[in-house]
Amino acid sequence: MIQFAFPAALLALLAIPLLLVLHLLRPTPRRVVLSTTELWQAALRDRESSRGLRRLLRNLSLLLLLAIALALGLALAGPQWLTRASEGADTVLVLDVSASMKSRSGIATTRFDQALAEASGIVDGLPRDGRMLVMTSGRKALLRTGFESDRGALRRALAQLRPGDEAGRPREALALALALLRGRSDGRIYFLTDGAFDPDADPGSPQVVFRVVGRPARNVAITRFDFRQERASEDRFQMLMTVRNYTDTPVTVPASATLDGRVLFQRTLELAARDTQTLVLAFPGRALGQAIARIDVDDDLAADNQAFAAVNLHDPLRVLLLSRGNFYLESVLEALPNVELVKRDELGTEDLARLARSHDVVVFDGIAAPELPPGNFLLVNTVAPGLPFSEAGRVTQPGILGSGPSALMRGMDLTAVRIDEARRVVARERVPGLQRLFWSRETDLALALLDEGLKVVYLGFDLAGSNFPRQAAFPLFISQGMEWLRPRGDDRLSSHIAAGATHSIGVPAAQTQVTVRAPSGAAVTSEVKDGTAAFDATAAAGIYRYTVGDVARYFAVSLTDARESDVNSRWASSARREPAQPASNDAQTLVPLWPYLLVVALVLLALEWFVWSWSRSRA
Fold first, then answer.
1. 3 state DSSP class of 527
2. pLDDT band at 589 (very low <50, low <70, confident <90, very high)
3. Model pTM greater than 0.85?
4. Dihedral, CA atoms, 492, 496, 501, 505, nearest 10 degrees?
5. Residues 199, 176: Cα–Cα separation, whole Å
């Protein structure tokens, strides 16, 4: 069957009758009277001997011109031949490796086992010259092979696949698969899945064939596990744990949690059908170590019957000191516990925003500071532009008149502090987030600013021109200032992420690599960029260990995803559930014919030129 991409271009075929009209309008012979016909009769006898051949050549030239016009007119219309796809059509095989594929589905088998069996059947049915690409759909879509015609290589790739503990994102995986087949309407995508996702993941493309595996399953899951500091006390912490029943019947579930082997609680939860319970329990002491929550239930998915959390000491505070030399300030910063100090004598041409991202605190000591980007800064005897306070001269021997209620001033006695000279600063009125720390009659001597993305502690005098560094208040002020400037996310104590997510690891600036040991014991090395390593090999739940300097640190990976733990199919009942067939069995494709017509027109044009040249030579 022939289709035309541009049917309106068939109007070009009107050139055929136009050529016929021009042929009929050729000049007619004229009648001329001569004195003798003897010479003309001799010429006429020669012409009559070749008259048949000349007539044939003249008609052939016309026919060739008409054929050229026909071929070019049809080529302009873009003819296409609709036919079955060749046996070499490309196939993309997408396997769901999300946590729900670990659900039991029969005796000693899982949904993923069934999906692998389906995948093997599709590989076996691959045409001899067909190609197939294997990819997986978890939290991220990953290509496992290129387009491969070697069935053995495809089977080996399938044998290496395992489901993870991560929540799936099938929409992104299918979008990538369709992009791989862009421009190939004869290609086919097979998505082998349990259907435990929302219907909007279906892209609605006829190229995508869903093969749903697994049977209905029972599941009870831990959907949240976390630790947080009690706001009223630093010596008490809270544990949060949420358990959800996805079945249609009530269940009784023994639940427990441990922290570094210490049992935090053990109790039995009674959950109604489709019920959820959240426990918030308080405990004395400081949360520190590796925590595991468990529920003892015989359901079809074990991956969400436990969850993990890791509570570390604070990460080392990475401080960059920009100073031309300050014995007192350097000594205090070096003496503070869990502080990594880097010293420079000038900022130079380096990008301050990049330095602020790679260090927790940047200290300017008597060095002119540029406009501050988002970050945490201690300004000593310098004022940066763009702040809600600005310099307005100098003050000689200011006496400290009072101090504010800020936590930075807790336990601080400034009675004996003497200052030779200070900067006079003028603050804008009613600035949210600006605190007065201590002041004189003439000016504010110390300020703290908390703005969106920016924290600043300001000390408005030269330490060398004061006895402040020799007072007991000085190391306390610097210590509390560093703690206040320390980056904080929220009041969570534990370091944990969802399975499959990327974990950012802060390391010293001099460290170029960090090695992470997974729960399986496998070691994975990540490169460090700007003081941070992005680690993404987190498909398996459990506790991960790495070393910063000589200190071992941990982070936890858990499923804890309420939607992924809902393991029964949420796919619409009207969705397509086609049997797996080789990609070429019923696929159709359009073969363009215009290149062939163009070649025919060029050949005919060359032949017409040859006929015209030969007839001229015989004339």
1. strand
2. low
3. no
4. 90
5. 18
What residues form DSSP beta bridges with 448? 435, 457
Nearest residue to 303 via CA among 209, 402, 168, 133: 168
Residues 245, 246, 250, 253: what is their CA dihedral angle, to the nearest 10 degrees? -40
pLDDT, tens only, 536-559: 999 999 999 998 777 788 899 999
Task: Indicate if the alpha-carbon torsion angle 412, 414, 417, 423 is positive or negative.
Answer: positive
State how far the Cα of 289 lies from the Cα of 259, in Å rounded to an integer: 6
Q: Are the beta carbons of 285 and 273 closer than 8 angstroms?
A: no
Instruction: Name residue 334's amino acid.
Output: E
Q: Residue 597: name the closest of 221, 119, 73 by CA.
A: 73
| Whether 495 contacts 556, CB under 8 Å | yes
Strand 551-558 versus strand 496-498 pairing type? parallel
Among 251, 254, 245, 246, smallest CA distance to 295 is for: 254
List pLDDT tens digits, range 194-226: 999 888 888 888 899 999 999 999 999 999 999
Distance between CA 238 and CA 153 in Å, rounded?
A: 52
What is the Cα–Cα distance from 568 to 299, expressed in whole angstroms? 13
Fill in the DSSP letter of residue 441. Answer: S
Contacts of 15 (CB under 8 A, 6+ apart): 69, 72, 73
H or E stretch covering 121? helix 111-124
Q: Which H or E element spans position 356?
A: helix 352-358
Q: CA-to-CA distance for 555 and 318, rounded, in angstroms? A: 20
Tokens, residue 441: 């009659």
73, 74, 78, 83 alpha-carbon torsion, rounded to 10° = 180
193 vs 509, residue with greater confidence? 193
Q: Residues with Cβ < 8 Å from 477, sequence gap 6 or more?
A: 408, 409, 412, 446
What is the total residue count of the chain?
619
* Count helices and strands in the chain by DSSP H and E runs: 10, 32
